[in-house]
Write a structure and sequence with these properties.
321 residues; alpha/beta; Rossmann fold; two-stranded antiparallel sheet
Length: 321
């Protein structure tokens, strides 16, 4: 397991012994390599650049991910089943682009396997009928949570980011990441619980990733104006009062992070995940978009200290040690 120590930075205390750690500390719990970049990449880049401690916990190595590079299709799970090392290389490159040095896999590399997914009648992701015994979807919840408890107590984040109860779009590994992160955040703060896992630590704020319904509509409009047309694009009803699938109403968003200044880093990190993201994906057409809400990464407050209205900082209103 690549458990690197929290890095020092301009934001750290001046004491030389014991080693200082950043005053602001953020932990993100994601399901597979590339999830961190597509949903929280500019947020990670911003706080890393500002000297905050940023820890990424990835729950699987994405062994069942698709492979969009034809010459590497042999790595797929239904061929050589050797995609994991490649995805770890891509994750490492992506973290270099985002400036994040502390990134680990839950329980160590390969502890739990990508569960794969199927689709329901609405096109949403669900667990497939057959799931590998070693998959993250089948992981014992307490066992997986204990691995994260140890990391939380070691890194001591004030803020933790994960998915909502639907895993954002239904992928079973995302749903499981939500469950594990939620359980671990509660257990980590209990002084009498498993003291061998470290000193208790109470996370001050848990956030869920969120996609703004209005921003999503704006993105779809931009895509249609650019001539983008496919079944997914064409199925979005921009005039409906109901938020499109995978989005939330804007009134439910508690904090927005403006990622414009870190957009180049995010797109470079996306390109690092080369087996998963095509270079001609529509999203790359947005990299020249002017400043505005297309660059925002949004979050909902799940628990902990409320955010002030109009917050643009994950740590706003927190007491920092």
């Amino acid at each position: 397991m690549t458990n690197t120590a929290p890095t020092t930075s301009p934001e750290t205390d001046s004491a030389t012994s014991p080693p200082a750690i950043p005053k602001r500390r953020l932990m993100l719990v994601h399901a597979h390599p590339d999830d961190e970049t597509t949903s929280t990449g500019t947020t990670m880049a911003r706080y890393a650049a500002e000297g905050a401690g940023v820890t990424l916990v990835t729950c699987t190595l994405g062994e069942l991910g698709e492979v969009v590079i034809p010459e590497l299709e042999h790595l797929r799970h239904d061929n050589d089943d050797n995609l994991a090392p490649r995805r770890l290389e891509e994750l490492t490159k992506a973290m270099q682009e985002l400036g994040v040095t502390d990134f680990v896999r839950l329980g160590g590399d390969g502890r739990w396997r990508d569960s794969g997914m199927a689709y329901d009648e609405r096109g949403g992701a669900i667990a497939p009928d057959e799931v590998h015994d070693g998959s993250f979807w089948r992981a014992d919840l307490l066992e997986a949570a204990n691995e994260l408890v140890s990391l939380i107590r070691d890194r001591r984040p004030q803020v933790l980011i994960t998915y909502d109860e639907k895993g954002h779009y239904g992928h079973p590994d995302h749903v499981q990441a939500h469950r594990v992160a939620t359980y671990a955040a509660a257990l980590a703060g209990v002084a009498s619980y498993r003291p061998e896992l470290g000193e208790p630590w109470q996370i001050q704020r848990v956030l869920w990733t969120a996609m703004s319904a209005e921003t999503f509509r704006e993105m779809i409009r931009a895509g249609r104006e650019a001539g983008e047309s496919n079944e997914w694009f064409d199925s979005i009803d921009l005039d409906s009062d109901e938020p499109p699938m995978m989005t939330v109403r804007d009134r439910d968003i508690d904090v927005r992070i403006d990622g414009y200044a870190y957009g180049a880093q995010r797109f470079a990190a996306m390109r690092a995940h080369a087996t998963q993201i095509r270079n001609d994906e529509f999203f790359f057409k947005l990299q020249d978009a002017p400043p505005g809400r297309l660059w925002e990464e949004c979050f909902r407050l799940a628990s902990g200290v409320p955010l002030p209205d109009g917050a643009d900082d994950l740590f706003a209103g927190l007491t920092l040690d």
